[in-house]
Amino acid sequence: MNLIEKLRTFGKKPFVLFSLILLLKSYLAWLVVFDSKVSFMPLLTEIPFAWLLFSLIEWFASKRKLGYYLSVNLLLTAVFFAVIMYYKYYGVIVTYHALQQVNQVTAVSNSVFSLMDPYFLFIFIDILVFGYVLLRKKKATTWKSTVATRTQKKGLVSAMFVVSLVLCLMNVLPNRASMNEIVKAGEMGILNYEAYTIFSSKKQELVDSKEITQESVDELKGIRKQTDPSYWKAAEGKNIIVIQLESFQNFLIGLKIDGQEITPNMNRLAKENFYFPNFYQQVGQGNTSDAEFVVNTSFYIPPIGAATQTYADRSLVSMPKLLKQNGYNSATFHTNVVEFWNRGELYKALGFDHYYDQSFFGQEDTVFFGPSDEMLYAKTADEIEKMSKSGQPFYTQIISMTAHHPFTIPDKKYHMTLPKRYEGTFVGDYIRAQNYADYALGQFIDSLKQKGIWDNSLIVLYGDHLGLPIYSLDRDDKDLMEEIYGREYGYSDMINIPLIMVSPGLTQPQTFDQIGGQVDILPTVANLLGVSMNNQLHFGQDLLNQTYNLLPQRYYLPTGSFMSDKALFLPGRGFEDGTNYPVAGNIGDGAEATEEEYERALKLLHMSDSYILQLPAKE
Protein backbone atom coordinates (compact mmCIF):
# COMPACT_ATOMS: atom_id res chain seq x y z
CA MET A 1 0.00 0.00 0.00
CA ASN A 2 1.57 3.30 -1.08
CA LEU A 3 1.54 6.57 0.84
CA ILE A 4 -1.51 7.98 -0.92
CA GLU A 5 -3.54 4.84 -0.32
CA LYS A 6 -2.56 4.79 3.35
CA LEU A 7 -3.45 8.45 3.69
CA ARG A 8 -6.76 7.91 1.91
CA THR A 9 -7.62 4.95 4.15
CA PHE A 10 -6.81 6.89 7.29
CA GLY A 11 -8.34 9.99 5.76
CA LYS A 12 -11.75 8.40 5.76
CA LYS A 13 -11.74 9.44 9.41
CA PRO A 14 -10.50 13.04 9.17
CA PHE A 15 -11.61 13.74 12.75
CA VAL A 16 -9.02 11.26 13.98
CA LEU A 17 -6.36 12.14 11.41
CA PHE A 18 -6.38 15.87 12.06
CA SER A 19 -6.63 15.38 15.82
CA LEU A 20 -3.36 13.44 15.77
CA ILE A 21 -1.72 15.97 13.48
CA LEU A 22 -2.66 18.92 15.70
CA LEU A 23 -1.64 17.03 18.83
CA LEU A 24 1.87 16.66 17.42
CA LYS A 25 1.98 20.34 16.47
CA SER A 26 0.81 21.38 19.93
CA TYR A 27 3.63 19.34 21.47
CA LEU A 28 6.12 21.18 19.25
CA ALA A 29 4.76 24.57 20.37
CA TRP A 30 4.80 23.52 24.03
CA LEU A 31 8.37 22.27 23.69
CA VAL A 32 9.51 25.72 22.54
CA VAL A 33 7.35 27.98 24.71
CA PHE A 34 7.03 26.04 27.96
CA ASP A 35 10.15 23.88 27.65
CA SER A 36 7.64 21.09 28.13
CA LYS A 37 8.54 17.46 28.38
CA VAL A 38 6.08 14.79 27.24
CA SER A 39 2.92 15.26 29.31
CA PHE A 40 -0.84 15.11 29.00
CA MET A 41 -1.26 18.89 29.08
CA PRO A 42 -1.43 19.52 25.30
CA LEU A 43 -3.91 16.66 25.02
CA LEU A 44 -6.08 18.13 27.78
CA THR A 45 -5.82 21.77 26.70
CA GLU A 46 -5.24 22.02 22.92
CA ILE A 47 -7.19 19.07 21.51
CA PRO A 48 -10.57 19.94 23.09
CA PHE A 49 -10.41 23.30 21.29
CA ALA A 50 -9.73 21.55 17.96
CA TRP A 51 -12.55 19.11 18.64
CA LEU A 52 -15.01 21.98 19.03
CA LEU A 53 -14.21 23.06 15.49
CA PHE A 54 -14.18 19.50 14.14
CA SER A 55 -17.59 18.80 15.68
CA LEU A 56 -19.04 21.80 13.84
CA ILE A 57 -17.61 20.46 10.60
CA GLU A 58 -19.12 17.02 11.22
CA TRP A 59 -22.49 18.59 12.02
CA PHE A 60 -22.88 20.91 9.07
CA ALA A 61 -20.42 20.02 6.30
CA SER A 62 -20.80 17.43 3.56
CA LYS A 63 -19.51 18.31 0.12
CA ARG A 64 -16.66 20.49 1.36
CA LYS A 65 -15.90 18.61 4.57
CA LEU A 66 -12.27 17.89 3.66
CA GLY A 67 -11.74 21.52 2.67
CA TYR A 68 -12.98 22.69 6.07
CA TYR A 69 -10.70 20.26 7.89
CA LEU A 70 -7.74 21.41 5.83
CA SER A 71 -8.64 25.07 6.48
CA VAL A 72 -8.92 24.57 10.24
CA ASN A 73 -5.64 22.65 10.23
CA LEU A 74 -3.94 25.47 8.30
CA LEU A 75 -5.37 28.14 10.63
CA LEU A 76 -4.32 26.38 13.84
CA THR A 77 -0.91 25.58 12.34
CA ALA A 78 -0.44 29.28 11.63
CA VAL A 79 -1.38 30.10 15.23
CA PHE A 80 1.12 27.59 16.65
CA PHE A 81 3.87 28.80 14.32
CA ALA A 82 3.22 32.45 15.15
CA VAL A 83 3.34 31.62 18.84
CA ILE A 84 6.68 29.84 18.43
CA MET A 85 8.33 32.60 16.40
CA TYR A 86 7.01 35.47 18.51
CA TYR A 87 8.11 33.79 21.72
CA LYS A 88 11.61 33.30 20.35
CA TYR A 89 11.97 37.08 19.94
CA TYR A 90 9.83 38.67 22.64
CA GLY A 91 9.47 35.87 25.18
CA VAL A 92 5.70 36.37 25.31
CA ILE A 93 2.64 34.66 23.82
CA VAL A 94 1.51 36.39 20.64
CA THR A 95 -2.13 37.48 20.46
CA TYR A 96 -4.33 39.01 17.79
CA HIS A 97 -3.14 42.44 18.92
CA ALA A 98 0.16 41.73 17.15
CA LEU A 99 -1.66 41.98 13.81
CA GLN A 100 -0.87 45.69 14.10
CA GLN A 101 2.74 44.68 13.44
CA VAL A 102 2.09 42.83 10.18
CA ASN A 103 3.34 45.76 8.09
CA GLN A 104 6.61 45.68 10.06
CA VAL A 105 7.35 42.00 9.37
CA THR A 106 8.73 42.43 5.86
CA ALA A 107 11.11 45.11 7.12
CA VAL A 108 12.53 42.76 9.75
CA SER A 109 12.42 39.56 7.70
CA ASN A 110 16.11 38.87 8.38
CA SER A 111 15.41 38.97 12.09
CA VAL A 112 12.42 36.65 11.72
CA PHE A 113 14.31 34.04 9.70
CA SER A 114 17.29 34.14 12.06
CA LEU A 115 15.05 32.92 14.89
CA MET A 116 13.94 29.84 13.00
CA ASP A 117 15.39 26.51 14.04
CA PRO A 118 15.08 23.97 11.21
CA TYR A 119 12.91 21.64 13.27
CA PHE A 120 10.21 24.35 13.49
CA LEU A 121 9.44 23.58 9.84
CA PHE A 122 8.19 20.11 10.80
CA ILE A 123 4.97 21.88 11.67
CA PHE A 124 4.27 22.30 7.94
CA ILE A 125 5.11 18.77 6.71
CA ASP A 126 1.52 17.55 6.67
CA ILE A 127 0.46 20.62 4.70
CA LEU A 128 3.05 19.82 2.03
CA VAL A 129 1.81 16.22 1.87
CA PHE A 130 -1.82 17.30 1.58
CA GLY A 131 -0.82 19.79 -1.10
CA TYR A 132 0.88 17.02 -3.07
CA VAL A 133 -2.19 14.78 -2.82
CA LEU A 134 -4.58 17.54 -3.84
CA LEU A 135 -2.46 18.29 -6.90
CA ARG A 136 -3.04 14.70 -8.04
CA LYS A 137 -6.55 15.40 -9.30
CA LYS A 138 -7.74 11.81 -9.60
CA LYS A 139 -6.42 10.83 -6.19
CA ALA A 140 -7.72 14.04 -4.65
CA THR A 141 -11.22 13.49 -6.07
CA THR A 142 -11.32 9.99 -4.67
CA TRP A 143 -10.13 11.16 -1.25
CA LYS A 144 -12.66 13.99 -1.12
CA SER A 145 -15.51 11.67 -2.02
CA THR A 146 -14.64 9.25 0.80
CA VAL A 147 -15.18 11.95 3.44
CA ALA A 148 -17.89 13.99 1.73
CA THR A 149 -20.89 12.44 3.46
CA ARG A 150 -22.36 14.16 6.47
CA THR A 151 -21.96 12.07 9.60
CA GLN A 152 -24.89 9.92 10.68
CA LYS A 153 -23.75 9.76 14.29
CA LYS A 154 -25.13 13.13 15.37
CA GLY A 155 -25.51 12.01 18.98
CA LEU A 156 -21.83 11.08 19.23
CA VAL A 157 -20.78 14.35 17.63
CA SER A 158 -23.03 16.31 19.99
CA ALA A 159 -21.55 14.51 22.97
CA MET A 160 -18.05 15.22 21.70
CA PHE A 161 -18.90 18.91 21.28
CA VAL A 162 -20.32 19.20 24.79
CA VAL A 163 -17.39 17.37 26.39
CA SER A 164 -14.90 19.52 24.48
CA LEU A 165 -16.71 22.72 25.43
CA VAL A 166 -16.76 21.72 29.08
CA LEU A 167 -13.03 20.92 28.98
CA CYS A 168 -12.25 24.26 27.33
CA LEU A 169 -14.26 26.16 29.93
CA MET A 170 -12.58 24.20 32.73
CA ASN A 171 -9.22 25.24 31.31
CA VAL A 172 -10.17 28.90 30.86
CA LEU A 173 -12.47 30.01 33.67
CA PRO A 174 -10.36 29.11 36.73
CA ASN A 175 -7.22 30.64 35.21
CA ARG A 176 -8.45 34.05 34.10
CA ALA A 177 -6.92 35.80 37.10
CA SER A 178 -3.37 34.63 36.43
CA MET A 179 -1.13 37.70 36.14
CA ASN A 180 1.69 36.07 34.16
CA GLU A 181 0.66 35.62 30.52
CA ILE A 182 2.97 32.63 30.05
CA VAL A 183 1.50 30.93 33.11
CA LYS A 184 -2.01 31.77 31.92
CA ALA A 185 -1.39 30.32 28.45
CA GLY A 186 0.12 27.18 29.99
CA GLU A 187 -2.88 26.67 32.26
CA MET A 188 -5.50 27.48 29.63
CA GLY A 189 -3.73 26.00 26.64
CA ILE A 190 -2.39 28.08 23.77
CA LEU A 191 -5.51 27.89 21.60
CA ASN A 192 -7.86 28.58 24.50
CA TYR A 193 -5.69 31.52 25.54
CA GLU A 194 -5.80 32.97 22.03
CA ALA A 195 -9.59 32.67 21.97
CA TYR A 196 -9.83 34.14 25.47
CA THR A 197 -7.87 37.26 24.48
CA ILE A 198 -10.28 37.81 21.58
CA PHE A 199 -13.51 37.41 23.54
CA SER A 200 -12.48 38.90 26.88
CA SER A 201 -13.45 42.52 26.41
CA LYS A 202 -13.20 43.71 30.01
CA LYS A 203 -11.73 47.20 30.09
CA GLN A 204 -9.88 48.53 33.07
CA GLU A 205 -11.50 51.55 34.64
CA LEU A 206 -9.34 54.64 34.32
CA VAL A 207 -8.09 56.56 37.31
CA ASP A 208 -9.68 60.03 37.41
CA SER A 209 -7.17 62.47 35.95
CA LYS A 210 -7.70 64.78 38.94
CA GLU A 211 -6.30 62.07 41.21
CA ILE A 212 -3.15 61.67 39.14
CA THR A 213 -0.73 64.18 40.60
CA GLN A 214 3.04 64.28 40.92
CA GLU A 215 2.62 63.84 44.66
CA SER A 216 0.63 60.61 44.19
CA VAL A 217 3.17 59.30 41.68
CA ASP A 218 6.11 60.17 43.95
CA GLU A 219 4.43 58.44 46.88
CA LEU A 220 4.00 55.24 44.90
CA LYS A 221 7.58 55.49 43.65
CA GLY A 222 8.96 56.09 47.14
CA ILE A 223 10.60 59.38 46.09
CA ARG A 224 11.84 61.77 48.75
CA LYS A 225 11.59 65.39 47.68
CA GLN A 226 14.95 67.19 47.71
CA THR A 227 14.96 70.83 48.84
CA ASP A 228 18.51 71.41 47.60
CA PRO A 229 19.19 68.82 44.87
CA SER A 230 22.74 68.00 43.86
CA TYR A 231 23.88 69.07 40.38
CA TRP A 232 20.97 71.50 39.99
CA LYS A 233 21.74 73.75 36.98
CA ALA A 234 25.20 72.16 36.65
CA ALA A 235 24.71 71.93 32.87
CA GLU A 236 22.55 75.03 32.51
CA GLY A 237 22.37 76.32 28.94
CA LYS A 238 24.32 73.43 27.44
CA ASN A 239 23.25 71.65 24.28
CA ILE A 240 21.69 68.22 24.84
CA ILE A 241 22.80 65.33 22.62
CA VAL A 242 21.01 62.07 23.39
CA ILE A 243 22.41 58.97 21.66
CA GLN A 244 20.23 55.87 21.68
CA LEU A 245 22.35 52.81 20.94
CA GLU A 246 20.67 49.93 19.14
CA SER A 247 20.45 46.69 21.18
CA PHE A 248 23.35 47.76 23.41
CA GLN A 249 23.49 45.73 26.65
CA ASN A 250 25.54 46.71 29.67
CA PHE A 251 27.78 43.63 29.77
CA LEU A 252 29.64 45.06 26.78
CA ILE A 253 31.12 47.85 28.94
CA GLY A 254 34.63 46.81 29.90
CA LEU A 255 34.31 43.45 28.14
CA LYS A 256 37.44 41.88 26.71
CA ILE A 257 37.45 38.61 24.80
CA ASP A 258 40.84 36.95 24.59
CA GLY A 259 42.37 40.35 25.30
CA GLN A 260 40.34 42.23 22.68
CA GLU A 261 38.42 45.25 23.93
CA ILE A 262 34.96 45.14 22.35
CA THR A 263 33.71 48.72 22.91
CA PRO A 264 36.76 50.90 23.65
CA ASN A 265 34.94 54.21 23.08
CA MET A 266 32.03 53.39 25.37
CA ASN A 267 34.49 51.99 27.91
CA ARG A 268 36.40 55.28 27.94
CA LEU A 269 33.22 57.32 28.32
CA ALA A 270 32.02 55.12 31.20
CA LYS A 271 35.37 55.24 32.96
CA GLU A 272 35.80 59.02 32.73
CA ASN A 273 32.24 60.26 33.34
CA PHE A 274 28.94 59.49 35.11
CA TYR A 275 28.16 55.81 34.60
CA PHE A 276 25.02 53.97 35.71
CA PRO A 277 25.66 50.23 35.36
CA ASN A 278 22.40 49.16 37.03
CA PHE A 279 20.16 50.72 34.40
CA TYR A 280 17.29 48.85 32.69
CA GLN A 281 15.14 48.97 29.59
CA GLN A 282 11.40 49.66 29.84
CA VAL A 283 10.29 49.01 26.26
CA GLY A 284 7.66 46.74 24.76
CA GLN A 285 6.26 45.74 21.41
CA GLY A 286 7.64 48.86 19.71
CA ASN A 287 11.24 48.20 20.81
CA THR A 288 13.37 51.14 19.60
CA SER A 289 10.39 53.44 19.06
CA ASP A 290 9.15 52.60 22.57
CA ALA A 291 12.51 53.67 23.98
CA GLU A 292 12.16 56.99 22.15
CA PHE A 293 8.71 57.42 23.69
CA VAL A 294 9.72 56.52 27.26
CA VAL A 295 12.85 58.68 27.28
CA ASN A 296 11.05 61.72 25.88
CA THR A 297 7.93 61.49 28.09
CA SER A 298 8.90 59.70 31.32
CA PHE A 299 5.72 57.62 30.93
CA TYR A 300 5.41 53.85 30.70
CA ILE A 301 4.60 51.96 27.51
CA PRO A 302 0.98 50.88 26.91
CA PRO A 303 -0.23 47.43 28.03
CA ILE A 304 -0.94 46.43 24.42
CA GLY A 305 0.75 47.57 21.22
CA ALA A 306 3.58 49.97 20.53
CA ALA A 307 3.47 53.42 22.09
CA THR A 308 3.80 54.98 18.63
CA GLN A 309 0.58 53.29 17.53
CA THR A 310 -1.36 53.60 20.79
CA TYR A 311 -0.41 57.01 22.17
CA ALA A 312 0.72 59.03 19.15
CA ASP A 313 -2.72 60.62 18.79
CA ARG A 314 -2.36 62.32 22.20
CA SER A 315 -0.91 65.74 22.95
CA LEU A 316 1.97 64.38 25.00
CA VAL A 317 3.97 66.25 27.60
CA SER A 318 7.58 65.70 26.62
CA MET A 319 11.23 66.68 26.74
CA PRO A 320 11.13 68.63 23.43
CA LYS A 321 8.17 70.70 24.68
CA LEU A 322 9.71 71.27 28.10
CA LEU A 323 13.01 72.40 26.60
CA LYS A 324 11.26 74.55 23.99
CA GLN A 325 9.80 76.56 26.89
CA ASN A 326 13.39 77.15 27.93
CA GLY A 327 14.66 78.36 24.56
CA TYR A 328 15.78 75.08 22.99
CA ASN A 329 15.40 73.97 19.38
CA SER A 330 14.88 70.21 18.95
CA ALA A 331 15.49 67.56 16.30
CA THR A 332 15.62 63.77 16.04
CA PHE A 333 17.75 61.73 13.63
CA HIS A 334 17.02 58.20 12.37
CA THR A 335 18.14 56.57 9.11
CA ASN A 336 14.97 54.49 8.65
CA VAL A 337 11.85 55.86 6.98
CA VAL A 338 9.75 57.96 9.34
CA GLU A 339 6.64 55.88 8.60
CA PHE A 340 8.22 52.83 10.27
CA TRP A 341 6.49 52.32 13.63
CA ASN A 342 4.38 55.42 12.92
CA ARG A 343 7.26 57.64 14.03
CA GLY A 344 6.05 60.63 12.06
CA GLU A 345 2.96 60.88 14.24
CA LEU A 346 4.99 60.24 17.40
CA TYR A 347 7.38 63.08 16.62
CA LYS A 348 4.44 65.46 16.13
CA ALA A 349 2.93 64.35 19.44
CA LEU A 350 6.27 64.82 21.21
CA GLY A 351 6.73 68.27 19.71
CA PHE A 352 10.06 67.88 17.92
CA ASP A 353 10.79 70.93 15.77
CA HIS A 354 12.49 68.81 13.09
CA TYR A 355 13.03 65.19 12.22
CA TYR A 356 15.56 63.66 9.84
CA ASP A 357 14.89 60.25 8.32
CA GLN A 358 16.00 58.25 5.30
CA SER A 359 14.87 60.99 2.93
CA PHE A 360 17.63 63.14 4.45
CA PHE A 361 20.32 60.47 4.84
CA GLY A 362 19.81 58.86 1.42
CA GLN A 363 20.60 55.29 0.39
CA GLU A 364 24.38 55.32 0.53
CA ASP A 365 26.17 52.58 2.52
CA THR A 366 22.94 50.89 3.64
CA VAL A 367 22.84 48.12 6.25
CA PHE A 368 19.53 46.44 7.17
CA PHE A 369 16.92 49.26 7.04
CA GLY A 370 18.98 52.25 6.01
CA PRO A 371 22.35 53.99 5.93
CA SER A 372 25.00 52.75 8.35
CA ASP A 373 25.89 54.32 11.68
CA GLU A 374 28.88 55.94 10.00
CA MET A 375 26.55 57.76 7.60
CA LEU A 376 24.14 58.59 10.43
CA TYR A 377 26.83 60.20 12.55
CA ALA A 378 28.64 61.97 9.71
CA LYS A 379 25.56 63.73 8.33
CA THR A 380 24.11 64.34 11.80
CA ALA A 381 27.34 66.03 12.93
CA ASP A 382 27.14 68.41 9.98
CA GLU A 383 23.52 69.24 10.73
CA ILE A 384 24.23 69.75 14.43
CA GLU A 385 27.02 72.14 13.49
CA LYS A 386 24.48 74.22 11.55
CA MET A 387 22.13 74.18 14.54
CA SER A 388 24.93 75.29 16.88
CA LYS A 389 25.65 78.36 14.73
CA SER A 390 22.15 79.71 15.30
CA GLY A 391 23.11 80.76 18.81
CA GLN A 392 20.11 78.86 20.19
CA PRO A 393 20.75 75.83 22.43
CA PHE A 394 19.49 72.57 20.94
CA TYR A 395 18.27 69.15 21.96
CA THR A 396 18.97 66.32 19.53
CA GLN A 397 18.12 62.65 19.82
CA ILE A 398 20.16 60.34 17.60
CA ILE A 399 18.99 56.76 16.97
CA SER A 400 21.74 54.34 15.92
CA MET A 401 20.66 51.26 13.98
CA THR A 402 23.42 49.20 12.37
CA ALA A 403 23.81 46.82 15.34
CA HIS A 404 20.29 45.54 14.79
CA HIS A 405 19.03 41.99 15.18
CA PRO A 406 20.12 39.58 13.69
CA PHE A 407 23.51 41.42 13.79
CA THR A 408 24.86 39.96 10.56
CA ILE A 409 26.67 43.09 9.39
CA PRO A 410 28.56 43.07 6.05
CA ASP A 411 32.17 41.90 6.05
CA LYS A 412 33.33 45.42 5.13
CA LYS A 413 32.07 46.60 8.53
CA TYR A 414 34.19 44.11 10.50
CA HIS A 415 36.64 45.85 12.82
CA MET A 416 37.64 42.83 14.89
CA THR A 417 38.46 39.16 14.48
CA LEU A 418 36.34 36.87 16.60
CA PRO A 419 37.85 33.90 18.41
CA LYS A 420 36.97 30.66 16.64
CA ARG A 421 34.48 29.59 19.32
CA TYR A 422 32.42 32.73 18.64
CA GLU A 423 32.36 32.40 14.86
CA GLY A 424 28.98 31.44 13.42
CA THR A 425 27.14 32.06 16.69
CA PHE A 426 24.39 34.54 17.50
CA VAL A 427 26.45 35.92 20.39
CA GLY A 428 29.49 36.29 18.15
CA ASP A 429 27.53 38.19 15.50
CA TYR A 430 26.13 40.45 18.23
CA ILE A 431 29.55 41.25 19.66
CA ARG A 432 31.03 42.02 16.25
CA ALA A 433 28.09 44.29 15.34
CA GLN A 434 28.45 46.20 18.62
CA ASN A 435 32.18 46.52 18.04
CA TYR A 436 31.36 48.25 14.74
CA ALA A 437 28.72 50.45 16.40
CA ASP A 438 31.31 51.56 18.95
CA TYR A 439 33.79 52.32 16.14
CA ALA A 440 31.22 54.54 14.38
CA LEU A 441 30.40 56.24 17.70
CA GLY A 442 34.09 57.05 18.14
CA GLN A 443 34.11 58.82 14.79
CA PHE A 444 31.09 60.88 15.86
CA ILE A 445 32.77 61.89 19.11
CA ASP A 446 35.88 63.00 17.23
CA SER A 447 33.73 65.01 14.82
CA LEU A 448 31.86 66.79 17.63
CA LYS A 449 35.16 67.69 19.24
CA GLN A 450 36.63 69.00 15.98
CA LYS A 451 33.53 71.13 15.37
CA GLY A 452 33.71 72.64 18.87
CA ILE A 453 30.37 71.17 19.93
CA TRP A 454 31.52 68.57 22.44
CA ASP A 455 32.72 70.94 25.16
CA ASN A 456 29.43 72.86 25.32
CA SER A 457 27.14 69.83 25.42
CA LEU A 458 25.61 67.33 27.78
CA ILE A 459 25.82 63.96 26.03
CA VAL A 460 23.54 61.16 27.21
CA LEU A 461 24.13 57.62 25.93
CA TYR A 462 22.00 54.55 26.67
CA GLY A 463 20.94 51.26 25.12
CA ASP A 464 17.44 51.14 23.68
CA HIS A 465 16.69 47.50 24.47
CA LEU A 466 18.18 44.05 24.83
CA GLY A 467 19.95 42.32 21.97
CA LEU A 468 20.30 38.78 23.31
CA PRO A 469 16.96 37.44 24.57
CA ILE A 470 17.42 34.34 26.72
CA TYR A 471 14.69 32.55 24.76
CA SER A 472 16.53 33.13 21.45
CA LEU A 473 19.81 31.54 22.53
CA ASP A 474 20.81 27.99 21.71
CA ARG A 475 23.07 25.88 23.90
CA ASP A 476 26.31 27.21 22.39
CA ASP A 477 25.17 30.82 22.84
CA LYS A 478 24.21 30.20 26.46
CA ASP A 479 27.63 28.68 27.09
CA LEU A 480 29.31 31.77 25.61
CA MET A 481 27.21 34.06 27.79
CA GLU A 482 28.11 32.01 30.84
CA GLU A 483 31.77 32.40 29.88
CA ILE A 484 31.30 36.18 29.65
CA TYR A 485 29.44 36.54 32.95
CA GLY A 486 31.15 33.78 34.87
CA ARG A 487 27.70 32.49 35.76
CA GLU A 488 24.37 31.70 34.11
CA TYR A 489 22.92 34.52 31.99
CA GLY A 490 19.71 35.67 33.68
CA TYR A 491 16.63 37.82 33.14
CA SER A 492 18.02 40.85 34.96
CA ASP A 493 21.19 40.62 32.82
CA MET A 494 19.06 40.44 29.68
CA ILE A 495 17.31 43.78 30.25
CA ASN A 496 20.35 45.57 31.71
CA ILE A 497 21.49 48.44 29.48
CA PRO A 498 24.06 51.16 30.24
CA LEU A 499 23.47 54.84 30.90
CA ILE A 500 26.40 57.27 30.56
CA MET A 501 26.30 61.04 30.99
CA VAL A 502 29.14 63.17 29.65
CA SER A 503 29.67 66.90 30.04
CA PRO A 504 33.19 68.35 29.90
CA GLY A 505 33.90 70.40 32.99
CA LEU A 506 31.03 68.79 34.89
CA THR A 507 31.20 65.02 34.83
CA GLN A 508 34.12 63.21 36.40
CA PRO A 509 34.86 59.51 36.88
CA GLN A 510 31.95 58.31 39.02
CA THR A 511 29.83 55.16 39.09
CA PHE A 512 26.29 55.42 40.43
CA ASP A 513 25.14 52.05 41.75
CA GLN A 514 21.43 52.80 42.25
CA ILE A 515 19.06 51.18 39.78
CA GLY A 516 17.41 53.26 37.09
CA GLY A 517 15.28 52.94 33.99
CA GLN A 518 14.58 54.84 30.81
CA VAL A 519 11.77 56.84 32.48
CA ASP A 520 14.46 58.42 34.67
CA ILE A 521 16.43 60.10 31.88
CA LEU A 522 14.11 63.10 31.44
CA PRO A 523 13.99 64.18 35.12
CA THR A 524 17.74 63.61 35.49
CA VAL A 525 18.51 65.80 32.47
CA ALA A 526 16.04 68.43 33.69
CA ASN A 527 17.85 68.63 37.03
CA LEU A 528 21.23 69.08 35.34
CA LEU A 529 19.83 71.86 33.17
CA GLY A 530 18.04 73.51 36.06
CA VAL A 531 14.67 73.10 34.33
CA SER A 532 11.75 72.65 36.70
CA MET A 533 9.39 69.70 36.18
CA ASN A 534 6.96 70.78 38.88
CA ASN A 535 4.23 71.37 36.31
CA GLN A 536 4.96 68.32 34.11
CA LEU A 537 3.80 64.93 35.33
CA HIS A 538 6.50 62.26 35.07
CA PHE A 539 6.99 58.72 36.34
CA GLY A 540 10.78 58.77 36.45
CA GLN A 541 13.09 60.27 39.03
CA ASP A 542 16.33 62.20 39.14
CA LEU A 543 19.00 59.52 39.45
CA LEU A 544 21.51 62.01 40.84
CA ASN A 545 19.36 62.70 43.92
CA GLN A 546 17.51 59.45 44.62
CA THR A 547 18.77 56.03 45.62
CA TYR A 548 15.70 53.77 45.97
CA ASN A 549 13.79 53.08 42.74
CA LEU A 550 10.80 51.04 41.60
CA LEU A 551 10.70 50.10 37.90
CA PRO A 552 7.56 48.42 36.53
CA GLN A 553 8.25 46.21 33.51
CA ARG A 554 6.05 45.18 30.62
CA TYR A 555 6.02 42.96 27.54
CA TYR A 556 9.46 41.35 27.52
CA LEU A 557 8.57 40.25 31.03
CA PRO A 558 5.11 39.21 32.28
CA THR A 559 2.60 41.77 33.50
CA GLY A 560 3.28 42.48 37.15
CA SER A 561 7.05 42.21 36.78
CA PHE A 562 9.12 44.96 38.35
CA MET A 563 12.57 45.83 39.61
CA SER A 564 13.62 47.35 42.89
CA ASP A 565 17.04 47.62 44.48
CA LYS A 566 16.37 44.18 46.00
CA ALA A 567 15.44 41.97 43.06
CA LEU A 568 13.76 41.51 39.72
CA PHE A 569 10.34 40.02 40.42
CA LEU A 570 8.29 37.95 37.94
CA PRO A 571 4.78 36.95 39.06
CA GLY A 572 3.14 33.57 38.63
CA ARG A 573 -0.63 33.48 39.03
CA GLY A 574 -0.01 36.41 41.37
CA PHE A 575 2.57 37.59 43.87
CA GLU A 576 2.55 34.52 46.10
CA ASP A 577 3.90 32.11 43.49
CA GLY A 578 6.18 34.65 41.81
CA THR A 579 9.94 34.36 41.42
CA ASN A 580 12.71 36.71 42.55
CA TYR A 581 15.84 37.06 40.43
CA PRO A 582 18.96 38.84 41.68
CA VAL A 583 19.95 42.19 40.25
CA ALA A 584 23.52 43.26 39.67
CA GLY A 585 25.27 43.80 42.99
CA ASN A 586 22.88 41.48 44.82
CA ILE A 587 24.00 38.20 43.29
CA GLY A 588 23.64 35.49 45.90
CA ASP A 589 22.37 37.68 48.76
CA GLY A 590 18.83 36.25 48.64
CA ALA A 591 17.13 39.67 48.65
CA GLU A 592 13.47 39.58 47.66
CA ALA A 593 10.94 42.12 46.43
CA THR A 594 7.90 42.73 48.60
CA GLU A 595 4.18 42.39 47.91
CA GLU A 596 3.76 46.05 48.76
CA GLU A 597 6.21 46.95 45.97
CA TYR A 598 4.31 44.63 43.63
CA GLU A 599 1.04 46.44 44.32
CA ARG A 600 2.67 49.85 43.90
CA ALA A 601 4.22 48.84 40.58
CA LEU A 602 0.82 47.79 39.21
CA LYS A 603 -0.73 51.05 40.39
CA LEU A 604 2.00 53.06 38.68
CA LEU A 605 1.33 51.33 35.35
CA HIS A 606 -2.42 51.86 35.70
CA MET A 607 -1.90 55.50 36.59
CA SER A 608 0.35 56.11 33.58
CA ASP A 609 -2.13 54.42 31.22
CA SER A 610 -5.02 56.42 32.68
CA TYR A 611 -3.23 59.75 32.45
CA ILE A 612 -2.15 59.39 28.82
CA LEU A 613 -5.53 58.13 27.61
CA GLN A 614 -7.19 61.21 29.14
CA LEU A 615 -4.82 63.67 27.50
CA PRO A 616 -6.37 65.79 24.73
CA ALA A 617 -5.88 64.72 21.14
CA LYS A 618 -2.94 66.38 19.43
CA GLU A 619 -3.73 69.22 17.09
Short summary of the structure?
With 619 residues, the chain is of the alpha/beta class.
Description:
This is LTA synthase family protein. One of its GO terms (cellular component) is plasma membrane. With 619 residues, this protein is of the alpha/beta class. The protein folds into 2 domains: 3-199, no CATH class; 209-613, Alkaline Phosphatase, subunit A (3-Layer(aba) Sandwich). 44% of the residues lie in helices and 11% in strands. Strands 1, 4, 5, 6, 9, 10, 11, 12 and 13 form a 9-stranded mixed β-sheet that branches. A 4-stranded antiparallel β-sheet has the order 14-15-16-17, with helices on one face. Strands 2-3 form a two-stranded antiparallel ribbon. α18 links the parallel β5 and β6. α11 (181-188) packs across α12. The longest helix is centred in the first third of the chain and has 26 residues, at 65-90. The chain is globular and about 85 Å long. Residues 105-109 have low confidence and may be disordered.
